[in-house]
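User: Continuing from earlier, I have the next pair ready.

Assistant: Great, send them over.

User: Here they are, in order.

Assistant: Folding the first of the pair now:
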Amino acid sequence: MQAEIKGTVMPILEIALAQGEYVVTPHGELAWMTTSIQMSQTTSSGPAGGAGGGLMGGLKRMLGGGGLFLTRYQGPGSITFAAKVPGHIVPVDISAGSTYLVHRHGWLAGTPNITASVAMQQSFRAGWQGGEGFLLQKLDGEGRAWIELSGEVTSYDLPPGQTVLVHPGHIGMFASTVQFQITRVPGITNMFFGGDGFHLVALTGPGRVWLQSMPLVILAHALSHYLDKGGAKDAVAGGAVGGMLGGLLGG
């Protein structure tokens, strides 16, 4: 198996698979592939009865933001996955005993025997994450996973005991050796965080953390005002133009 990340602002992940090799993906992120690639649905990321298999494995993936089934792409051939928004695709190698916690929609694809489940869920009373709250999925097993992070990405290697406070949406991924805790800053309320105040996540080393500059939920929230206003303006403009054309044609 050979994998290459190409591009800059909107990267793609291109994987060449030999006969019998395969990768799995939780969200069906296919961009393009050769005709020799075989697609199938599975509940297991490994061989039959292997890693993350069965109904229970699928339910754990669903709790972690994925789906009940995985899509398997088997070689020989080439397959390409594309980022959904401007950002980066980050590869991580996972071995026995090493676990990574990833934001809800971060896992793009993985080699056999990568398993995904829910790491934690935290609900807030209003607004944040469109009502989804704060959710992390856990990736473990053995193999390589590719993670999609939004915007620019910065990583920090936290020494033991060092803590960084992070807005929940800016958390991209971190090693399981990093301790995390939801904290609330009282006295700060607005339409985005609602009555629960301002929530931050305390990440404490040791371990590496990857932070993303453009969380999808914040981007969607920022654009929503312009999209609503733009839609209304477009409707008015369209009506006016339609009326003028109708008058000319009728004349």
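And the other member of the pair:
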Amino acid sequence: MPDPQFQVVELFHSLQGEGRLTGVPSVFVRLAGCNLCCVWCDTAYAREPDAGRTMALAELVRQVCSFPARFVVLTGGEPMTAAGLPALAAALQAQQKHVTIETNGTRPPDGIACQLASISPKLRHSSATPSQDETARINLPAIAAWMDGYDYQLKFVVSSPDDVLEARCMLADLGRPIPPERVLLMPEGTDRTFLRPRDLWLVEVCKEHGYRYCRRLQNELFGAQTGV
């Protein structure tokens, strides 16, 4: 049986910029395709399923392993839309890699190899038609399956107190205890001058509820570039 084929938009070695592993040297594999269309998406160039270059599984794993990092991040777009992702994750795990999957949580894991599920459910403000798109954006059983089967973090992009309230309601709807430090709140935006006012109130929200404030180290270090 031939190797699965992947549309790879980016493959690079850098530091993790977001979440619990911020600052850890990692190899990033950005795959093409996404089932959502967030209005503030900062990787819209990876949205189309035919973006990037085609790579076979063996070559992709070889290139990932050419870097010295033990940690690998599978991202997108939405990597769970790639049909061959389970084979890729399993091959990387067989190479003793720590695999993080960055997902919007709309697709269940179905036993995929993964050491950290970085789940980022998309709130109403991500959509131009929020009420119409809610069933596409939120899949509570799939999110619960990730949480029940894997080490996880829940990352919410927020721009207002209403977004925090929506996130809190979603967490309650999941119906299971969630350590607050696994909930990461990230202010929407990339420009630090623009973000500063949001930081001030978001820090207070994190202090009140025990959530983790989530920075974007990649923007602080490199600015709004790709491949970093």
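Worth noting for the second one:
Residues 5-222 form a domain with the TIM Barrel fold (CATH 3.20.20.70). The chain has seven helices and nine strands.
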